Amino acid sequence: MTLSVGWLSALAVGVFSALVLQKLCFPYFWREFFFMLKLVRFGVKLELSDLTSSICTVLDKFIEQAQRTPNKPFVIYDGNIHTYRDIDQRSNRLAGVFLERVKLRKGDCVALLMSNEPDFLCVWFGLKKVGCLVAFLNTNIKSKSLLHCFNCCGAKTLIVGSGKASDLMEHVDSLLEDNIQVWAMTSQSENPRVHTLLDKIQGASDQPVPAVLRATTSLRSPTLYIFTSGSTGLPKAAVITHRQCLFATVGLWAFGATADDVVYIALPLYHSAASLIGIGGTIELGATCILKKKFSASQFWNDCRKHNVTVFQYIGELCRYLCNQPKTEMDKVHKVRLGVGNGLRPDVWREFHRRFGDIKMCEVYGSTEGNLCLMNHFGKIGTVGRSSFFNKLLFSFDLVKYDTEKDEPVRDQYGFCQRVKRGETGLLLSKVSTSNPFFGYAGSKQLTEKKLTRNVFRKGDAYFNTGDLMAEDQESFMYFRDRMGDTFRWKGENVATTEVAETLAPVDFIQEVNVYGVEVPGMAEHRAGMSAMTLRPGLTFDGKKLHEFVMRDLPAYARPLFIRLQEALEMTSTFKQQKFKLVQSGFNPSAISDPLYVLDYLQKSYVPLTDSIYQRILAGEHRL
Ligand SMILES: *[C@@H]1O[C@H](CO)[C@@H](O)[C@H](O)[C@H]1NC(C)=O
């Protein structure tokens, strides 16, 4: 008896100390373990459904949800409630019209050009009910890229939202010439060759079309094309399979959201974040979403209070806009508890917590087309997730040494890449395999091949090149450092533009800042640091103060040499800072109407950049 008690207590002490040791050495172990367990269980179920051909797509999930909770609000838009049944029935009507009037057939590809509105979902689901592939077009699309988009995904039909129909009219002729039929979500059309849909839905039946039309036999068959914005050049059509859609839809659930949550979606639906993580996530949970046509920083918190929003989707810039709003005593009065998104910079992240309280911010790292996804479910500031043991079981990725000058990975004497040491910045590559496939871009083998890096660690292997430079800390947390190409070289040193921007952010008169490198004539291989910035309302640019700041906080090579004051910083359509145009326009004061300043070490200040200084820089008489 005594013996067994002694043995038991020894065991208990042993287990206890093992747990303590584990807590000390691996404080994130269990949180990671349970999080991953959730995902792995989901993944296993998914693969089993593929083997047994009982795949439940996102659309199937929606239809099930509409049967389970028909009267539950699914989308609230502009103050109007659309229940699960409403959206289901309207998409049935549309599916009927697509079959009978538009003569669409299973497997056809249809392009969708609509802004955020409930009908975006009805048309999307209606098309999927008929078994069509759907290509989401960016609503900012320019005429030049429009035809290109049709060519890459092979769409022969375009459906235009009511608001977009008039914008499109000038391009309609070229579409029609290419034998693309155009259908608008309107009742009347000025152009007799543009067909109308709204009038036809009215009389259509709200009964479902045959389920066999939407059935799919493989998780790996494409279901959507989503265009990703190339920073230069034409958009690329990423091929999205059912499997990717289904994984994206469990994001909110994995972060702990439930059917009782109210999800705020103000990002454009033509991107995967809003359509798959946001709408798909709402369906997976059986929750309600507040859909916004556009994000508005001044309306955001009022909306959240009005609708009891608990979860919102962000990109870093949105949080920055929110922090830049005037403070009010209502700032912390809301029920928002979770933010899901990406690109939140550490300074904004901290400020966001200070202003709006304890909202768990979960960063999701992964591109639409990529084969890697990292999730920071810890809410740990500044990181995109953890390169843990469990994560490595699911995804195989590595950080490799990167040559910023050549814009490519460093190769050793045998032609292979080298892993960076912990703490060092490297290029993130993700191995392409059967469990983590890369489906590439529709209509272009060449673009697909360009995203791949081959022979990385051995002959014949292939990795998806994320184009992101990251570093991993001692606790295996991953930190975003820079976008490939967002680093430039000056006087033999690499300048990481986002790092400089983050350092400048605390300067009191700066509202927003964008750092980039400009070419100086006569110094071909170098880029001089330049920073475009906007000023906080009521404050003025103080060259002396900025000089003092950069001298203290930035190494010599990283100090911006030129400053460009702007009324507003230009953003790309995905709210990323527009650098390309700024780089192109350079620093010539006679060509730029914005106020320009140059760093002057003698006067210990940033002084206005005059024509004569500019000429002396070109002549090499003014030392930079
Ligand atoms: C929000 O929550 C409050 C209190 O829980 C409740 O009284 C109110 O009706 C809710 N509003 C909406 C739009 O659900």
What does this protein look like?
By secondary structure, this protein is α/β, with parallel strands linked by helices. Among the domains are: 84-241, 3-Layer(aba) Sandwich (Rossmann fold); 385-482, Luciferase, domain 3, CATH 2.30.38.10; 486-618, ANL, C-terminal domain (GMP Synthetase, Chain A, domain 3, 2-Layer Sandwich). It contains 20 helices and 30 strands. An eight-stranded mixed β-sheet has the order 2-1-11-10-12-13-14-15. The protein has a seven-stranded mixed β-sheet with strand order 7-6-5-3-4-8-9, sandwiched between helices. α9 packs across α11. The chain is globular, with a radius of gyration of 27 Å. The mean pLDDT is 89. The structure holds 2-acetamido-2-deoxy-beta-D-glucopyranose. 2-acetamido-2-deoxy-beta-D-glucopyranose is lined by residues 307-308.
List keywords for this structure.
binds 2-acetamido-2-deoxy-beta-D-glucopyranose, alpha/beta, single chain, seven-stranded mixed β-sheet, eight-stranded mixed β-sheet, Luciferase, domain 3, 20 helices, 24% strand, GMP Synthetase, Chain A, domain 3, 30 strands, globular, Rossmann fold, 624 residues
